[in-house]
Each structure stands twice: as C-alpha cells, then as structure tokens.
Design a protein that fits this description.
Helices cover about 75% and strands about 0% of the residues. It has about 170 residues and is mostly helical.
Length: about 170
Amino acid sequence: MEYPFAFISKAAGDLGRLFCRHLRLILAVVAMALAITAILAPVLESLGWKLLPRLIYGFDSALCHQIPGRCLHISGYPVAVCARCFGGYVGFAAASLLFTARREFIPATRLIFGLAGLLGLADAALQFAQVYDSGNLLRLASGAALGFGSGMPVFLFISAIEKSHNS
C-alpha cells in the first residue's frame, strides 16, 4: 500500500529540486528587489505616499544603518539603504546573473571576483576605522565591488552542491 500522502512528499521533493536548480536566479531577483524597493521608498514619498515608504524604510532599517548623509537621495528623500548597501545589492545581483549565465570560471576570473570583494571590504574597513571618509560615489562603487566579490564564494558553493547532487 502506498503512503496516503506520498504525493505531498513527491511535490516537496520536486519543489526542492526546482529551487536548487534556480537558486542563482532567485538570489538575483531578491538582491534586485532589495535595490528596487530601496529606490521606490523615496520616489513614493516624493509623490505623497506615507504608509508604503514607511514600511520599506522600516524593513530596510534591519539591514542597514540608513544614515541620511551616507544615502543617495531622490527628490530630496534618502534611498532606504546607504550607498554601500545599495551598491552591494546591485553588485550581488550582477554576480548572480553572471553565474546563472555561466557556471564555470577560469582561475583568473575567480581572482578578479576575489580582488573586487577585497577592494570593497578594504574601503569599508578603512572608513570604519576612520582612516578617511569616502563619499557616496566611492561607497556605491565599493559596495558594488563587495557585493560582486561576495557572490563568488556563494556561487562556488552552490556549484559544488549541484555537482554533488547531480553525480
């Protein structure tokens, strides 16, 4: 006799395999959604909306310090995350899309990813140590480099899981 809820088990397994197969794309969508909603908050606020921007700012406050001087501004309102976090979301999304399109990279490409991440991390650490104060454009660039570079170990890990799962 077949287990009465075997279809649930099979459906859960199918959903898990679908999720794993598309994890890179899912991560890209999540990162871009974070970036888009961060931009959406000041746009909606400038249009007179109150509740939705407050919800976005509130959600993003759990992810970022939101210091207004370190945020990009749209129509006089700060983006819901700082320039470095915004750049990180965009950089990670770009890495996600790149790894979705191409799953294997030569060592030189891995080196570029690693150096980008290290440069972004170095800028953040030097600013945190108050060695210098980078402006928002540099914060945006270093965040993008850090997001892009942090994508490499994440996606190498995903690739290793896929290889072990497929073999």
